[in-house]
Amino acid sequence: MAVDESLEELNLYLAESRENLATIEPDLLAIEEGGAEIDEKLVNQVFRAAHSIKGGAGFFGLSRIQELGHKVENILDMIRGREIVPNPEVINILLLAFDKLREMINNPGDSNKADIAEYLVALNGLTTSYLPPEQKKLVEKKVELPAPSGGMRLQVSEFDLSRAQKREEYVYIIEIDLLHDVQRRGKTPWEAFKEFLAGGTLLESAFNFEAVGTLDDEPLTRLPLDILFASVIDPSFIGMLFEGIPADRIKMIQEPLHPQPMMKTQSGLAQLVEAAAPKAEPVAIIETVATPAPVVAQRAAPQPAAPPAAAAHPASADQSASQAEDTLRVNVNLLESLMNLAGELVLSRNQLQEAIQRGDLRDVRASGQRINLVTSELQEAIMLTRMQPIGNILSKFPRVVRDLARELNKEIQLEIFGREVEMDKTLVEGLSEPLAHLVRNAVDHGIEAQSVRLARGKNPTGRIVLRAYHDAGQVVVDIQDDGQGIDPQKVVDSALAKGLVNEEQVRLMSPKEKLNLIFLPGLSTASNVTSVSGRGVGMDVVKTNLDRLGGKIEIDTALGRGTTFHIMLPLTLAIIPSLLVALGEERFAIPQTNIVELIHVPAAQAKERIEVVGNAEVLLLRGKLIPLVRLADVLGMERTYLNPHTNQVEIDRRQRLSDRRSVQHAYFETRQPNGVAKAEATQRRGADRRYHAASDLQIVVLSAGSLEFGLVVEELHDSFEIVVRPLGRHIKECQEYGGATILGDGRVALILDASGLAAKAQLTSLSGSARAQELAQAANTERASDEQTLLVFQNAPQEHCAIPLSMVARVERIERDKVEYLGGKRTMQYRGATLPLVTLQDAAQVGSVADDAELVVIVLNTGKREVGLLAAAPVDAVEAAVNIDSSTLRQPGIAGSTILREKTTLFVDVDELLEATGWLEHMPENAPARVHSGSITILLAEDSDFFRAQVKKYLESDGYSVLAGEDGEAAWELLQQHPARINLVVTDIEMPRLTGLELTRRIRQTPEFSRLPVIALTSLADEADIASGKAAGVTEYEIKLDRENLLARVRAQLSQL
Amino acid sequence: MPEKSIFHTNNEVIYTPGDNLVSSTVAEARADLKQIVQDGATLVVVDLQHVTIVDSSGIGCLVATHNSLSKQGGSLTVINISAEIYELFHLMRLDRHFSISKIEERGA
Prior knowledge:
- Helices cover 38% and strands 26% of the residues of chain A.
- By secondary structure, chain A is an alpha+beta fold.
- The longest helix of chain A has 32 residues, at 3-34.
- Chain B is an alpha/beta fold.
- Chain B is built from 3 helices and 5 strands.
- In chain B, helix 1 (26-38) packs parallel to helix 2.
- The longest helix of chain B has 16 residues, at 56-71.
- Classes of the chains: A alpha+beta, B alpha/beta.
- The A-B interface holds A 61, 63, 112-113, 178-179, 182-183, 188-190, 193, 197, 202, 204-207, 209-210, 212-217, 220, 223, 225 and B 23, 30, 33-34, 37, 53-57, 59-61, 63-68, 71, 83-85, 87-88, 91-94, 97.
């Protein structure tokens, strides 16, 4: 047998054995659970696995593996024969033996030196101690067989013989002359034995010492060895195994119970092995060629040879740590469909070539389409080959949980769902380590000791659930326990004690952020460190590993009731959706998973939104500071920009992003010296200069682990699905790149690695800086003024209008001819129904939407019926503190005006508009509400005139009487003047004199009013606000200007009275 | 090539062949061992530290030595055996007749 061929077969055997071992563990645990109730199918399964491991080991001369495998097989056989009850001790020994086997198989070169004595002793002990007396006798009882060579009789235990019989094996007694049959044929005895053992088991052997004689009897003529051999190979074929040994010296002494005709068509050693090792479903083994770079968010570029998952977790203490495999099992059907597709691809290429030669454009197009189709199918099929069931790694957890639970004296039941969920091989492997960590944590820290559980009235048996499922194109793995949960305060205390955060930072954190502190390096909440987990490292590693795989992790926890970790992972890494950005002539891809948001800062706002903290530039984003990095700087490229006047790329000289470009630009000095420059410069100094798109900043906010930062690029392009290619050898070490891809036009784009970029730019989080806290304060106070998100659009040209975004369901761009005029009403067909359309002009004295404008329909939220408002693009969402002048431009349909982005903007009163157009009457659910007609009075506290008027109108439209006060104090006075009349209070939160919360507290403290429902209105409520509101006694929170919801809440509250 | 050596201690003779025990070289070892046995040694230790291959005639030589020694009430010990050869001896159950060991230690 050629060397490489046998090496290949050895690898095949090893891969198969690893697979066999992977399935053994859960099966053994199931057998243990079954106890005396033997599930034969299950035991057979394990038996077969052990058997094929043993069989192959013999063939490759891995004698220790064979020996141990043989013993294990014996035990399993006895379990199958109900001779041994698989109690935890027995299973423990078997598990340990299989662990040893796995260790040896992972290290086949040294396996023959491995020390397996203790395992053999333990296993032998089982055999004898569990044998019924008569069987025990069998083991001890030896049968003596005459040696054919005339030497000493062969001794064999009856037990071995009967076992061979049960295994459907023939037993042969063979006389081998080592001189004639082996040496003369140019073989060493070792080679000969290796061949023999490939086909069966050696039960016994003995030299005929007498025939050898002493040193004085020269010369040596024969060296007879008698062997007792058990094999499935039947007598007509056994001669093939013992090649060269005369047939008369091979004697069959025992037949199997049910001899089966087999091996008829097979010959050669390889087949013999196959016969010895039962095969499962048809599969092919494919060597994976240079792992296609799961590089997405990997700091170091991948090693093409070693799958990166392995690099991510090198030495693991866990002996069962799954070895990142370099072979892959692929379904034969899949392989065949790949072959078919490859064939089709070739066919299409030929057609294309022919068509090009003929210059037949029609055929070129046709074959182009065909190639397109075949390629997508091929891509899908190939991706499928990389898909592996997540069960491959989940299956090790029953063992892990069982062992840990025993060690910690806990009763834990593990449930696993979704083993069949498939994901990319690299991901499956990379997930193994983080999962193991989380499961160990759940067992150790999550589930309480039995006594504690009993004291808390819980089921003494803890429960851990591993669940894998698909959700929105991602794979989600949940690790859920019903243990004690995580106390955010404990996490915070621990982080404070270790100096990882300071008190000021903590004060500004939401409970969720506090929980996420456990992902900080060096934090462990377990008060007593155990051997299992809680060594103060871990969760940060989990997070880093998941980041590397492009995954995310979230925590859900309830004190005393348990914790759930949700891990979200992409399905595959080889093809990823990415955003293309440009810098000068270069283009780069950024994996979509790293992108938090895209921000366009108009040149005019650069000064306000970009600040300098220390010597770093930061972006102000919703009260947060985001460090900024210029892509050109990190990559050491020249900063450039597209000169809007020449359409040429120019060098950017600005020091700061917020600086304006100097008039003394190289461009003007060198190329246009004759006065034109001056003229242009003067012109550029005009009002519009700052609004040039080229001066605008395009910022991609990226997340790299816990750090968010803004990457300033020149241009944003589209989002594409890109195929990740590994980086070339020379730039592999560049941490800022995660790989490369080839774009549609054949150019190469490098893939940017967020964490690499952050590291290269030496970014640090700014969340702790003084300026950040100042901003957070500012944000808090700003929240007090009525910040609203508004949708801004145009009516007539230059007629800017706004409505609260909360009233908008959708915005759709439409063609002018879609608008229909029927029965005097304006409508359009929309999602299979007729959508009534209104314009501002229907109610107010305003201009009409220009004929050439790009039409949009703003679909309004008005209860059950949707109404579209016709407007002109562009539409935009603006966050602004609304300060409405409700007198100057007030008219029906227009609530007033406000200044947004330095433009006077009309604030649309949607209700008035709809009323004026007659559509409001058609709203069905308004009718019943009016029944209240004045019998119910609502107290409204709101300091903004505009909001007060709006909300009052909403409430009155529903038939309530409203008493309105311009702050908390005024409302409180009203309440005391009309104590019996008021049924419900609606209040703003931030008001001068007396805030909404203070008002609420006062109401709650007055016995007379303490049961009054209070609905608080807010523009943006976060969890902390809601919590403090609830503490003050607020019954419900509602978003300002969300008419329908507010009314629904009011109705709901009133109905409870 | 390492030198063969014959080393006498007060009660045993340690023989270390300098070459593999295969048909082309076994004659020398056989002669050496015969001489040692004839000189009256009863406890003979064969140190296989330089030996990587033992073929059938090599085994024959060891078996014959064992037989000669048994006749005069002595015993054979084979030490420093490579893993492969150890395995082979174990399969042939030679370890039931004379003591074999992988590491440098005397069976007695």
